[in-house]
Amino acid sequence: MVNxxxxxxxxxxxxxxxxxLKGEAFFDIAPDANRQFILEVGSLTxxxxxxxxxxxxxxxxxxxxxxxxxxxxxxxxxxxxxxxxVKGETAIFMRSSDLLSKEFHADTNLxxxxxxxxxxENAPLEVIAAKLNEVYGVNIILSDSxxxxxxxxxxxxxxxxxxxEVIAETLNLKVSKLENKIVLEGSGCNRxxx
Length: 194
Hints:
Blueprint: E1 7-12, E2 16-28, E3 36-41, E4 44-48, E5 52-57, E6 63-70, E7 72-77, E8 82-86, E9 90-94, E10 99-103, H1 112-115, E11 117-124, H2 125-136, E12 140-142, E13 150-156, H3 160-171, E14 174-178, E15 181-185
Parallel strand pairs: 2-3, 12-15
Antiparallel strand pairs: 1-2, 2-5, 3-4, 4-7, 5-6, 6-9, 7-8, 9-10, 11-13, 14-15
């Protein structure tokens, strides 16, 4: 599944399946012993070893994030740095410095654009709003008084209005829709763990 504002180019031959990605996409690769799957993201090459994985490589960002949902992938930079990732692991590649590192605290919402499942554990409201903006293509704006608000909640394939209703009711907020903005306002949260 390809996320919005992303592009794929591909060439399939009898020996290999080669794809070039700009942006973000989730891949669930069917095994094919005769044709290897190779994904190129700029100077980074990802070789599938039978897996489902997500790659986020925004065009105007220095970082490439690879998350393996199942199976294993091998990542190689243009300078020869290599890393294997298995189920549940995430790697971050910094294009400018050619730095490749494993992330041990993976974001549980990395593939939420595909699944529409969100798991927030004491998450800052601004992080929640940013993720909802990204996935639903909306423009949620928070009033300054909500800077200390946090929320623990799980949403499973719900419409944006239903999610906003739960957030508003839980944190005693007012939701206003103005032109192309959704504004959340309230008296704020006194403690960081509200």
